[in-house]
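User: Predict the complex.
Assistant: Input components as received:
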Amino acid sequence: MALLIIEPYSVKVEVKSNSTILHALLLAGIKIQSICGGFGACGKDRIVVTKGLKYLNPPTKCERKWLSEEELSKGYRLACQAKVIADGVVSIFIPMESRIRLGEMKAIVNGFMRKVKLEPMVRKVHVVLPKPSLKDLKSDYERLLEALKERGVSIHKVDLDVLRSLPHILRKSSWSVTAVLWGNELISIEPGDTRREVYGVAIDIGSSKITMHLVDLVSGKVIFHSFLENPQLAYGEDIVSRITYAISGKNKAEELHKLLINAINELINVAVKQVGIDARRIYEFVVVGNTAMHHFFLNLETRYVSQAPYPPVVRRTVIVKAKELGIIGNLGARVTVLPVIGGFVGADAIADALATGILKTEDEVLLLDIGTNTEIFVGNKHHMLVCSVPSGPALEGAQILFGMKAVYGAIESIKIYPDGEVEYKVINNAKPRGITGSAVIDAIAELYRNGFINSRGKFRKNLGLNRVRKGKYGYEYVIEWGKKTAIGKDIVITEKDISEVMLAKAAIRSGVSVLMKKLGIKENDLSNIYLAGTFGSRINPENAITIGMIPPVSVDKVKFVGNTAIAGADMALLSISSRKEAEEIKSKVRYVELSAEPDFKREYVNSLYLPYKEE
Amino acid sequence: MALLIIEPYSVKVEVKSNSTILHALLLAGIKIQSICGGFGACGKDRIVVTKGLKYLNPPTKCERKWLSEEELSKGYRLACQAKVIADGVVSIFIPMESRIRLGEMKAIVNGFMRKVKLEPMVRKVHVVLPKPSLKDLKSDYERLLEALKERGVSIHKVDLDVLRSLPHILRKSSWSVTAVLWGNELISIEPGDTRREVYGVAIDIGSSKITMHLVDLVSGKVIFHSFLENPQLAYGEDIVSRITYAISGKNKAEELHKLLINAINELINVAVKQVGIDARRIYEFVVVGNTAMHHFFLNLETRYVSQAPYPPVVRRTVIVKAKELGIIGNLGARVTVLPVIGGFVGADAIADALATGILKTEDEVLLLDIGTNTEIFVGNKHHMLVCSVPSGPALEGAQILFGMKAVYGAIESIKIYPDGEVEYKVINNAKPRGITGSAVIDAIAELYRNGFINSRGKFRKNLGLNRVRKGKYGYEYVIEWGKKTAIGKDIVITEKDISEVMLAKAAIRSGVSVLMKKLGIKENDLSNIYLAGTFGSRINPENAITIGMIPPVSVDKVKFVGNTAIAGADMALLSISSRKEAEEIKSKVRYVELSAEPDFKREYVNSLYLPYKEE
């Protein structure tokens, strides 16, 4: 372990050998301009090493490209390239140009959340006990129970660990102690009065990203948030390949489980150091994730989740000791894993519904949490259906010729004019390197609106446009010419790219249509369409309607709600009634297995048209 | 591990290197004549090694003393001397002369027990589930719950381990499974119909001996019992020295805890092999022991139990997963540790009261569980007091010049005539080697009855008796002359020996007196005196009354009840209502801390007289 001191924040963090400085900053919750995602492609994550340069690797080829000799000699490095290679103290300074405004990452780690009454499962009661004497022979535990009873608190269960620590703590603290209750279970006992220190952690395990909120359960505020890439990505971007790996041999599932636990512990470790609290004051975790992540997290069998008829192992809320899962925190800390609905529609979807309150309204709503799998809710408090569709990675830019994630140098929006010319916006106003999935949606919408492509997404013949040409992969539209791009190549959108995105939108739209038809709901009945998730926050709703990804509604009905999965987890952490509501959502929402729906195939085929083929 | 095959029983057992054959036989539950307790002092534990002699140590000096050259050449060995020293298969034959009648050990491992209705906490329900389909999308767990609900069984809690194994077991068994319930918690799930296999284990952790009963919870019968020396004996015979060790440094308490767990696992391992059942079919343990053993078993702090005012950590029933304590059995097995009353009066005393039903009667009773500490109950269903007195090891023969345990060669009873001559009985009719504690009581009673000693236990002057003389340790009475003993020395009882036993009896009697006076009970009010424990089973009640150890009652009111501690544990295993009764006993019985009783000192002084000095 090396010690990294981060100025101007005076933050200290331990760094494992072979970790990059960027990784350490991420863990420390310190945001830095690293818009390419850590591949040395942006050169923005500049830091100055003021001490301990010798504990780092020598400058890489990539750094030599972005930094001058003079800068290197002054200790400039790129955070994504500089690695700790030996134990020692390294001090760095983050120059102004590399710092990021705090708000910039917010959309990703926070989401819309209904207000809830602060009433967490965990509560603390401080008591002072009479000392035992020959006239008062009660056991330590019965003595504590009596004092609690006088305060109107009754205990139904106690952890053995509490009994083990009780005698020592009572005497060390001169019989003044704080009892920590989880419901009516006594989960910890602490010397003195610790009522001001009550923390909980909300965790959203996404297929690609694990997001963590550290919540002060006294104030009800999120006091630290950070995220890590889901380390399972090394075993496949999609859930099915991870399950395939998990069932490929002994201990493989355990391995994927441990990856999650370790990542969560890393997040917690850094969070408590940054905020300066004792990890033993974390008493509760609320975890959400899709069914596969839910199962991996609990180390439940994932095999049957990926095979028809896709039954989960368990749907209802699972409560387990953090200790049993090997998660850092108080020895008696509890982990609540919110219920799953069915198929791949998991606890994250429950959290979406919880945070947005879609089951509380008389109005019909549509909620989409768009990702590699997209969860779709349709209905109101009286009837609510949900399904999951495999929308694939195209919307994240994968399988698109020049597709990329929404990072530095990505074209994030596109406008095409009737004359065939184009305008676009690049993240950080850089030279373009590629196109995001949402920009491809823009392009498709614009090409279709201008009549350059037909309802099947094919270019019309003889358009006589400069930018439309036959390329290596069939017809394509040139967004930017090579001389103006960062990659020296023309950036184009091909018919195949259009087709990929249309497959994804068809999956989503057909799911939406099946659910709406099952409930007899028309577009006009929808009071709101909620778009959740990272991708959902970037989309241009007008264009999404134009290509038919979502039903045609007035654009002001489309609301971006952000990461409602973590927001729902926060709610469950903050309030007992939200937990109960999560169970109610599980029971009230009807899961629709699309493959068993007779209409699904026809809807899918209809959805392959732009915007949608009405019959 | 060597494999030991024991003929003529065809029992196979694994033996650790450096274990004696006697140890292996003990574990295997095979009784053999080993009356000296395994010190090579009796030569009775003869076995014939028919195969694998080379895996044993060479004959010891002790074996050469007891076995002829011819016998040795035929493979004769002593079980307490022959040790397995290498891995291999060893076959032995136990000749008729070494076998023991089954009843002989019974008093030690069994006790009187009231009849109870068979209604264990653990029960099994067999169900066949409908398979999931696209029309029936329930999760595996909800599917199981529905099937159980149809059978009128509702589950309030489930172990994570059950969820982990559920999908595989359901499919492996074609959806026909047996649910194992502990109360309304689902603790295990098994393929097929296993309703006939339900086992529980009762354990009495005595300061010197750990006794185990393996109980078939379908028939309600004890199907195997065995015991081991408490391995903590290496840290002191008495509880206080063990506690002193436990608090002498880090991990010392843990060490004493582990010793108990390992011994219990050894007992279970052997039991399941002998009976031929799967240890995973053990779902429940009921454990009793005095407060110190209770605390060591649960790894609770013992420090304050040995310091005034002696508060236990917890009194009420403690329930914990066997897995959490590292005890072998089903992954979901539960351990119930019966409540403790107060001071050193622990779960074993609760079990005594449970087994004998002393709280169910209108009649006043006295119950003594005599050991190094003696628990004393006095009262009836309306009022019941209990205390514990340190009766010390004298009654077990320790601190007596020629004292020994009740094993081979021990004088176990003594009759002295008015002419000063003596008659005695030796265990196994051997030449005498020493005297048991109960025989010393006989001797004191007889000497007093004949007027040879006064009420202070001192020999009267000028008795003119051959056998009374002044020896090295003051006046003494010769039981047997050296030429007739196995040790070549005169076996005597000294005034100091008499004094030691009188101290023990004074402790007991003063406890009895204080409790009786507190309740205003006279001797004549007592309907019964129950004597529990190993020593309590050997005592001559008439002599115990003569020396004043117990109050003067008609001898037929004295009942020997044996090991009621294990019997009470059996009851709790067999019946839910017995568990509830144990809690009631805990609440109803009032613990009396003698050191806080103003009368105690005077009573103790009065009890130092023979039989007892009435004021």
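Chain A is about 30% helix and 25% strand.
Let me know if you want any component modeled separately.
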